[in-house]
Amino acid sequence: MITLIATVRTKPGMGAELEADFGEWAKVVKANEPGTLQYDLNRSREDADVYVVVESYFDEAALQIHVNNLSARKNPPTMLAGPPTLQVLDKVVL
Question: Where would a tag sit more exposed on the chain, N or C end, judged by fewer CB atoms within 10 A?
Fold first, then answer.
């Protein structure tokens, strides 16, 4: 399993727009990406313009499908202050 953590900053005061956009996009992910096991948006308690997306994928192929879908998105979000910071992690099986 692969976990991806994406940290994004919205333009000042545009958190509600990001939350609405993410909610709509999450429906697309759920309907079209069976290998996406988790896709959750979290807001920072310290900075209301900072969000962290926690994503889990069954395997590398599932992650690639998600990346391809994001790249093909017709209306990418415009409320972001810049590109996300990404961490890609491999689950450690104990």
Answer: C
